[in-house]
Structures are given as C-alpha cells and as structure tokens.
Amino acid sequence: MSTADLMENLREELTCFICLDYFTNPVTTECGHSFCLVCLLRNWEEHNAPLTCPECWRSLESPNFQPNERLGRLAGIGKQLRWQVLQKEGNNKRMLLDPKEISHVQNAKAFQTQGHGMNRTYQTNGVEEYHKGKLQELLTLLRKKRKETQVILNHEKERVILCKEETKSCKQVVVSEYVKMHQFLKEEEQLQLQLLERVERENVKKLRENELKLTQQIRNLSKMVEHIEIACQSSIVETFEDLREILERSEPLLLYCPETTTMELCLCRITGMREMLRKFSTDITLDPNTANAYLVLSEDLKSVRHGGIQQQLPDNPERFDQSATVLGAQIFTSGRHYWEVEVGNKTEWEVGICKESLNRKGNQPKPPGDLFSLIGLKIGEDYSLWVSSPLKGQHVREPVHKVGIFLDYESGHIAFYNVTDESLIYSFPPVSFEDSLRPIFSPCLPNEGTNTGPLTICSLKNCM
User: Fold this and answer.
1) What percent of the chain has pLDDT over 90?
2) Could you read off the pLDDT of 162-206 as tens digits, one per residue?
3) How many Å is the Cα radius of gyration of the chain?
4) Which of 29, 55, 280, 401 supports an S-S bond with 338, CB 3.0-4.6 Å?
5) Dihedral over Cα of 113, 119, 124, 128: its sign
C-alpha cells in the first residue's frame, strides 16, 4: 500500500462523520462513536428529535459524552502529517488540498478551534462569524449545564444535612437500645447473683447441719472413750454382762461413717457470653512440627488424637518427646482471641495456652506462669476439672463436652468457658504477659481404649 493510500486511510479514521473534516475537540458517545463537539450539538439542535447517534442511529438516553482529547491530538498530528507528505511528494492527485485547506493546515496552531468542512465555503470573516455563533451555542449549553450542576450541588448539600440528622437519629436509637440492653444485663446479673446466694445458703445450711451431726458424734465417741478408759483402770467390768453392755453401746458409734457434705456446684452463667466472645474468634490450626510422635493430626490440622503407635518423625527441638501434646500454629503477642475445642466424651484431656518458650522435652512439671490449662478427668462416674498454675480442681455433675478459651493479651486475662451452658469454668488472675503465647492441646493417653477420641478445634461458623 502506497504512502498516499495510508494517509488517506488515516484521514478517514480521523474525520468527523458530520463535517467530514479532521476532528476538533472530539467527544465519544455511549455507543462508541466520535464526533466534533460543536458538530454533535448542532446536529441534535437542528433535528429537534429524540437523541440518536448520527452514525449508527442508536437511541441515547441522555446527552452524555466523554471528551476524547487523545483523538483530538491525533487528528491535529494527522492533519499536519498529511500536509508535510503532500509537500514532500508533490502528490496532486489523491491528496490534493484546496487552497483553503492548505491555509487551514498552515494556521492550525493559531486557529485550533476553527471550523472544519464549513471553512471551504466561507471566507475568513464568515468563518469567524460561524465560529462565534458556535461558541455562543456552546456557551448557552455550558450555562445550562452549570445550572443543572448547581441544582444537583444544592441537592447534595441538603443531603449532607439530612445525612447528619439521620446519623444523629440513629445514634439516639443505638443509645436507647443499649440502655435497654444494659438494663436487661443488669437484671440478669442480679438474677445470677441471687441464684449464687441461694446456692450458697443451701450449701452452708447443709454444711452446718453436718457440722452439728459430726460434733455430736465426736461427743458421743469422747464419752465412750472416757467410759472405757475408766473401766480399764478400775474393776467396773466384773462380769461378762458388763462387757457386753459396753460393746453394744460402742457398736453404733463404730458403725457410723462420717461423710462430707455434697454441695450444689455454683455455675457462673453469663448471658450472651458466647455471642460477645465470638467477635474475637480466631482461626486456630495445629502445628505438626510440635506434635508428639504418638499423636495423629487430621489433614486440615483441626483435630488430634492419640494413635497408640509411635510414628517415625524427626526429633526436632520444637517437638514434644514425652508429653502427648501439640501446639497451635498461631503465635499471640497482642490482641484478644477466642476459640472453641470439642472434647466430646473423652475421659481425660487438656487444653489451654502456654508460653512459646515452654520446655518440650521430658515430662517434668511446668514452671508456674508457663502454662495456663484446663484438664478434664473422669474416674468411674466422678468427673472433675482441674486448672494449672497453681493446680486446683472442682467436681462437676456433668462432663464438659465443649470448651471455650479466651485470651486478652494486653489485660493479661485468660478464661475457660463451658460452651454448652454458657457458664464460666475458671478465670485466671490477671497476668502481665511479655512472652509470645500459643494454644496447647493434649488428647492424653488412650487409657486402655476408653480415651481414644479426638480433640477437635471448632469452626465458629459451623460449630454451634
């Protein structure tokens, strides 16, 4: 293809469909076609019909178009390039420019806003008048657009005021609702305190009654001891009947078995506890590099059980070699975190939080402050919960099937919850944390097949 053909193709691409001249201040409609701004506005004004694209006749919803400055610059370059090629090749056949067009190109820099095809029929004065008319039309349209924009601006300012009023109203509603909630929680608090006081009274009553029984029993035993001691030191027991009388009187005292009082356990139920704690839910996974060789982890690293067989695993420094324990992969140095562990019907288990520096070799007792754990233990029908640092326990009526663990690093707070009945199991006294902390899990030994179930970290989205 010759240079002339290429230039002609370029001119066609850079030509306005309406004025058939190079683009000046081109804009692009929503259908993708481009026109000179003045040509497009004049076309719509003259036809006085629903807005359509002059090229594809597609209906346009509104006179929205985007300025296409790059296309305008390309048109200016194409116009000057065509003139230079014409001068160089002297091609007066296919690229012949009429005198007015030559003048238009030569003065492109001085008259960048001049008309296009129209200037072939008007003299300079006529062109100036035409341009002034076009500018006046454009000025009218811009003023109209400015007025429309001002209306929208005023509307937006009104919306700012409305937005503030709505926010103020919403804040009042929120405060009002939380006042109700605070009142409700206050009532729930009083209810729980009254319940604890009732349980305390009943337990104290039982203890006092048993105390009286034991005191009376001690008196009876003391009298009998004193009577027998005197009998041994004198000749009071002269016959077999005297001895039998003493034995008969002593028999009930010997058969009596003193017992401790069985007290009702005080459960600290916290209304809405789980909903509040779930805001701090943290996705916990197990760290296989810390797992004892007897432990088997699930593929998703959410569950651990004692496999009963020692696996061939590298004895790396972070792995527990004696204790059936594995750590969580997450390391905490700040923030509040909450997760839940399904312990199921296991007869022995341990969950909690420990220092990153916890010794993992051997099975020696952990130094105070290195481990904050909760231990579940079932012996026969007796079920108890124990906490470490320092070790203390309490008997419970029903086993705990799901444990919630909460850590507030900054406030030094660690607590365990019974998720099933939403009660507090134990809250450690505040501690000043300086070391990194990690979750800790132990499914404990299988106990002859009675404790083979896994510990499973719950997904708080699905584990309800």
Assistant:
1) 27
2) 888 888 888 887 788 778 778 877 887 888 888 888 888 888 888
3) 46
4) 280
5) negative
For residues 25 and 70, the answer to whether their CB atoms sit within 8 Å is no
Cβ–Cβ < 8 Å for 127, 119: yes
Beta strand extents in 295-367 (DSSP E only): 295-297, 303-306, 326-327, 336-342, 348-355
Specify the DSSP class assigned to residue 429: P
Task: Tell me which residue has tokens 């729930």.
Answer: 188
Q: Which residue has the tokens 């500018």?
A: 135
What CA–CA distance (Å, rounded) separates 35 from 40?
6
Q: Which two tokens stand for residue 320?
A: 């527990």
Burial of 75 (0-12, 13-18, 19+ CB in 10 A): buried
Residue type, 394: Q
- Nearest CA to 440 among 279, 344, 324? 324
Q: Which residue has the higher pLDDT, 157 or 54?
A: 157
CA dihedral sign of residues 443, 446, 451, 454: positive
- DSSP state string for 257-305: ------PPP--EE-TTHHHHHGGGB----B-GGGS-TTEEE-TTS-EEE
Each residue's pLDDT tens digit, 286-299: 999 999 999 999 99
Measured distance CA(265)–CA(461) in Å, rounded: 31
What does pTM read for this prediction?
A: 0.54
Distance in angstroms (rounded) separating the CA atoms of residues 114 and 24: 8
Say yes or no to pLDDT of 346 above 80. yes
Nearest CA to 21 among 73, 71, 79? Answer: 79
Beta strand pairing call for 303-306 and 326-327: unpaired
What does the alpha-carbon distance between residue 296 and residue 171 come to, in Å, rounded to a whole number? 52
Look at residues 456, 404, 450 and name the one whose alpha carbon lies nearest to residue 425. 404
Six-digit token pair at 333?
A: 């140095």
